[in-house]
Write a structure and sequence with these properties.
The complex is a heterodimer of chains A (336) and B (268). Chain A has helices at residues 53-60, 82-88, 104-114, 119-132, 148-159, 178-193, 205-211, 229-236, 247-260, 281-294, 309-317, 321-327, 329-335; strands at residues 9-22, 25-38, 42-46, 68-73, 76-77, 89-92, 166-170, 197-202, 214-219, 222-227, 238-243, 266-270, 273-278, 301-305. Chain A has 336 residues and is of the alpha/beta class. Mean pLDDT of chain A is 87; it is low at 1-6 and 326-336. The longest helix of chain B is centred in the middle third of the chain and has 29 residues, at 150-178. Classes of the chains: A alpha/beta (336), B mainly alpha (268).
Amino acid sequence: MTNHTNQRSVIRTQALTRHFTRSKKTVEAVRGLDLEINRGELVAFLGPNGAGKSTTLRMLTTLIPPTSGTAEVAGHDVVRARSAVRRSIGYVGQGNAAAYVQRGRDELMSQARAHGIPRAAAKARIEELLAAFDLQEYADRPVQTLSGGQRRRLDIAIGLFNHPEVLFLDEPSTGLDPQNRANLQEQIRRLHEDGTTIVLTTHYLEEADALAGRVIVIDHGVVIADDTASRLKERLGDLVLLGFGTESDAATAASRAESALSGSTLIERAGTQVSIRTPRGADSAPALAIDLAAHGTPAIRMEVHAPTLDDVFLDLTGRSLRESADSTTQTEGAAA
Amino acid sequence: MTTLTIPATQVRRTTRPLSRPTGFLTDTWTVLVRELTPKLRQPASMLFAMVQPLVFLGLFAPLLPAVESGSALQWFVPGIVVMTALMGASMTGADLTAEIRSGSHERLLVSPLSRPSLLVGRALKEVVPVLFQTAVILAVVTPFSFDLHLGGVLVGAVIVSLFAIGLGALSFALATAAKEQDWVFWTVQQMLIFPLLLLSGVLLPLDGAPGWLRFLSDINPMTYVVEAERALFAGEFPADVVISGFVAATAVAVLGVLVGVRTMERSS
């Protein structure tokens, strides 16, 4: 028996792979994933639909077995020790955890029974969760009469019932209105502050950006980036757009900027406009503008854009996250 | 306008998960209790499967010719009890389809409940609506020309319960295989129940039927269940008929659970 509580790593995968066969064609949904997630981390799997993030989550939560490779969650192998994994984790799927014909309190109790929790402890835990998620007055109503936000809170309460070592959330905010989405993100942040390890998938950049300490960008079944959101964006750099009076001014300024700015700088000129992608561009832009004016090619307009995760995704894949969200939905269908 | 409040209390975290290993029987009981809870909170929901049988009872039974041994009702009611079990248990998979669609089934698959318990617990709960429905039917018909033989009815209830467990398990297996596509479920279910019903001789005796129809009736396990119920509800215990009914119902139950468990184990 491994004493997993002493280890820092709570999820570890090696060459984790999953294939699906769809109309005699093999779809490689996840291809050789190597991951290590530590206790207390809040990690977002970001990628378009069909990128393989949900498939990865389904393997980590024992819903589907890997085609090859291994994964350990909370110290247990997801294939050989499925039930140990299931006892250690919480899962909030894309749908609702409580059946619509049931009452919230009954579903919390069935979750307690599933985890073998004695009745008295179960009742105490139910009250604790109902209070924490502000669900007391809805607990005895049929789930189908609850609002989307109330149901989502109930989903999380059910997912957290067993004090999971890792809470998995699959597209948690899909279908929620902006207000409920913000509320949900607040919940997730609190859980993270309490020390719960959280792994979520999302195709909302804002969500990954707002929530996660660590963003793992997945595309075509492989990890293409794995870092904090801020470092991912920092590495890409800010976008500085400069407008000039004439094309020749713009050309001169472009070459001047090239020598003035060091590091991984990308400069493009289109007509009278020069676009510069450079690390910490917001900091260097004022000095650059002064320098260009001093050399007789003053900029007449300037914009500075901080990078978004969408820019990061575009930079990594050559595709926009939003565009690919529509084009690759078929592969996700195979994963479902 | 919905009001949203962010909970003030935090969900305290302990170092160890609050979960203990459970056995198959505990899991099955958990599933059974979970399935029954909404039905017991709203018993009227169990009447839905009775609409059709009660219509037959009210509008079809009066057309039956009098038979030499007792009333037509005495002959007809046992069949209606089996018909109600057939209707209810074969539809029960739709509840699972709803859970597959809404996501609650997925939550149970990720929970520590074993796959076989998810099927067996569900199938076992079919006994409750069957007994409830049988009681309602008997309560309706007893004031008329129907003699209640309690001993026979109780043995009959055991047989029809086994039959319902098997049908329920098959219905859940069908729902599991059909996944979110509920039209697949309903198409197959509708395609199967009417041949089963007509070939079992619930509505009309198959004595004068052509050979091929007799053959199909003979391989229909429901035929034996209906014949056993008829004898038992009349207060008779002919060993061969009762044993045949019991064997047929048990065979359906065993087959249903085996197929159901296999399907559920592949469910993801």
